[in-house]
Amino acid sequence: MALRASACFQTGFNCVELDSRRVPGSSSEHRLAWAGTVLLGVALMAIFLLACLLLTGGGLDDSFITYRYAKHLAGGHGIAWNVGEQPPVEGYTSFLWVVLNAIPIALGGSPLLASKLLSIAAAGAIIVLTLSGAHPIQERPWRAVLATLVALCTPLAYYTQTGMETVFFTALAFASTGLALREFAGNPRPLWLMASSTLFGLAAITRPEGVMLFGLIAASGLSLRRSAEDGRISRRTLLFFVAPFFAIWLTYFMWRLQHYGWLFPNTYYAKHSGNRLLNLPLGVYYLVLAWAPYLAAPVSLGALAWVATPTREEDPSARRSLQLALHLGGACLVYVLYIVWVGGDDRSAFPSVRLVLPVLPLLWMATVMLVAGASRHWTKLSPRACAVGVAALISLAWAEDGLQLLKASVPAGGDSRQGLLKTKLAQFTDEPHGPLPAWILEHTQPTDVIAVPWAGRVPYATGRPTLDMLGLNDTHIAHLPSLQRGIDVKMDPEYVLARRPKLIFVNVNHCYVQKECSFADAGGWKIGDRQLIELLRQSPDYDWVKDAPTDISVFRRRESLAQ
């Protein structure tokens, strides 16, 4: 009897049966299609790696906050901001990123370089997963569209080079959501549900938003299985999905609650709590900036495809896939509205759309699913033509922001004359800190406290006990009410002076201290900075430092008091 091999898989909106006995040459066509997929994957990875190299730099300042905690962990001091500090403060956002970066530090390597390599691998994993079908979309042209959108996403390439956990979290969010929705769309398999749940658990200890994403996707997936054919999901299957997540996240949550004593990380209280909705307009403004290049195209295309799809689908799998795409898109929009609620992000410190980035691939997934389903009813257009059109439209939508990131990353002047490739390769492996850390080490003792308005590179490079004046790493400041609109505006000048730091850095040009310019002309806008400078002017214990290698204002405690 002839050997009959058949398989049924989701194409996004319909189920296709392959029968090697009835489809002549299907095996060779299958191998040819996979060869094309591999070639496309190699080409997309090459493009993405080139973008990563062009966008590389010295990392963002906030990434070094994580590295300071990781350095203390690797040195046997625990996850601490200042060695021996009690009570401990949770001034980092990503627990897993701290642990991962402690490994290269313990081995004598650079955490920034390790973070770049790990982030590139995470982004590459998204491309591989899109092409391999680890999500509900199974038609190869539409999988290729999704992979192309990921590879051409300039902000994704940019944030692989910042040293932050953003891309790593994005990859975990994509992998866990894609696997979960693929299983919910058909007959859930316990092994894959457990794998998805485990990835959700890792996402939740990478960033707190992972808990919200798990809840949104779980609710979306469970609500799908209410048809007469499928019935409700069984308790046993549900247990396979939720058990690994809660085993990971609850263990971590109970530890951090006992260790730090607060429900949320200290960074949340420093940035977002106590603002009495002052920052809501900032969140709306952040959404508008993200909407134009990144959200308008996929949301518009998805809405048009939804309207173009008949309301009554005869195929049950088509109805389920349509519902799945709408739920996924809704989950992404809820996530974006949460970003608006907390006030958005500081784009001067974090260019482009850092907070939106983790759900962008998921939003594209929902858009591609909707357009793929609608294209079945567009008889004059082939699926491949629709796929190319979608990729082109969404890619053009973020071209402006992407070009700005590239322009800001290309060296100018003398650096460009050395050769772009050589310069970028040097930047990729470099961990620049500038002259200020060396100056601080020269003018302080190991036990001297410094007070800074940026808690990243300088505290990491000097290792000095540090007072974070913006409260990210200080519980007292973090729990104060906000005095004005903005991110990182909580300050307590009197508290800072009471701590008697040896050096105080105020993020205002020293021309204001010398009364040569106005506060605004000196780059000042925070109420706390103005109050702190006025107190320091009147204080008999501090002098303005003229020889510091920085344009911002530096004050040093007088030696007589120090002795």
- Taking pLDDT < 50 over at least 5 consecutive residues as the criterion, the unreliable ranges are 1-25
Class by SSE composition:
mainly alpha
Strand order across the largest sheet = 4-3-5-7-6
Oligomer: single chain
Integer count of domains: 2
Kindly report how far apart the N and C termini lie. 96 Å
Report helical residue fraction: 55-70%
Number of strands: 7
Mean pLDDT: 87
The number of helical segments is 25
Radius of gyration: 26 Å
Strand content: 5-15%
* Shape summary: elongated
The largest sheet is: 5 strands, mixed
Give the helices and strands, then pairings.
Layout: E1 6-10, E2 15-19, H1 26-54, H2 63-74, H3 95-106, H4 111-132, H5 140-151, H6 154-159, H7 166-185, H8 190-204, H9 209-224, H10 235-260, H11 266-271, H12 280-308, H13 316-341, H14 360-375, H15 383-397, H16 399-409, H17 414-417, H18 420-429, H19 436-443, E3 450-452, H20 457-462, E4 466-468, H21 475-478, H22 493-498, E5 503-509, H23 510-513, H24 527-538, E6 542-544, E7 552-557, H25 559-562
Parallel strand pairs: 3-4, 3-5
Antiparallel strand pairs: 1-2, 5-7, 6-7
